[in-house]
Amino acid sequence: MSVYNIYRMHKILVTGGAGFIGSNFVRYIYRNRPGWQIEVYDKLTYASDKSSLIGLEDRVSLTVADICDENSINEAVARNDLIVHFAAESHNDNSLASPWPFVNTNLVGTYRVLEAVRQYHKRLHHISTDEVYGDLSLNDPSKFKPDTPYNPSSPYSSTKAGSDLLVRAWIRSFDVQATISNCSNNYGPYQHVEKLIPRQITEIIEGRKPKIYGTGDNIRDWIHVEDHSSGVLTILDKGKIGETYLIGANGEKSNKEVVETILELMGKDSKDYELVNDRPGHDMRYAIDASKLNNELGWQPKFTDFKKGLQATIKWYEANRDWWLPQKNATEAKYKELGR
Ligand code: NAD
Ligand code: TDX
Questions:
Q1: How far is the CA of 145 from the centre of ligand 2 (A)?
Q2: How far is CA 208 from the centre of its chain?
Q3: pLDDT in tens, 269-305
Q4: Of the bound ligands, which one is closest to the alpha carbon of residue 283?
């Protein structure tokens, strides 16, 4: 058994490390754990970009492979001490159009990761989402807690819920040394233009109107991606094996409020958006109660000024057109087919 010790741990495997949150996490570890070697393990799907890892090459390597590939994932797990598992198909709209990649990567892929960490006795942290709990109504004052019953709505969230249950079963039945975190909606740099915030920023840059699904009253609980990374590192350092921690920063906002703020920050009329077709089964509201992580592990978010975080994110997309432009047309073509 490789015993986890923050002072001794030097080799970390980050699945999905060329995606949005994974690449931000790699950057965060690179800065905050100067002694660690980081191996990114990523299939490089449409959602990834290896240029998100530029400048880190001295301590970050990239293995291009699928988590569903038994031999490759076994070998990668065997040569590292610690595995943080971000790799997933992550976009709800895609999961409604084509569920199979979600079942395959999120369920079969997580099974492969679990079997590898079981075989080689490695510490695992599994990354998940608040969407496993389903949704809350707008007038319900409650928030998701670690013991809220699972009630996922979409193919995406149901496969993430299934992956969490696999991890829990492997902990209990096989003594796998794992923790789980369920985080709320992330925003920040390097997020694919299919997601709400980068889509609207880049639509405005391209001279078009933002598009809001349905009425725009749906609420998401926003957290800056760097706060997600610090939450995960806190769990690696101090979390109790077998436990689930919720990561959130009290950032509830309706989609309308988010889009209006983006328009305002970009010097446009805050009402200059379009209402488009709703997402089938669209979850109404998410809200995280992160008190377990706050009280038991002493974690607090730092990026709590949403407007400031959004302003910095807008600046990043304005300055990094080369990063997102290659994906933009294909993304909008997909949305056009859906009337969204
Ligand atoms: P993303 O789509 O930006 O990145 C996913 C990465 O995984 C990509 O680099 C992709 O190439 C890789 N990948 C996909 N299938 C793979 C496979 N079979 N083998 C190897 N690599 C594969 O996603 P994200 O938004 O960065 O989300 C990362 C994780 O965080 C996911 O597990 C997601 O469920 C979870 N999460 C996301 C959010 C959010 O707001 N985006 C919130 C909570 C939790
Ligand atoms: O153009 C849009 N207009 C719009 O109104 C898009 C792309 C989205 N929306 C709405 C749908 C949601 O209510 O905005 C909200 C956020 O949508 P997404 O960015 O697609 O995120 P969401 O479906 O909430 O899921 C995200 O957070 C939880 C991530 O994609 C998941 O991976 C994570 O688990």
A1: 21
A2: 27
A3: 999 999 999 999 999 999 999 999 999 999 999 999 9
A4: 2
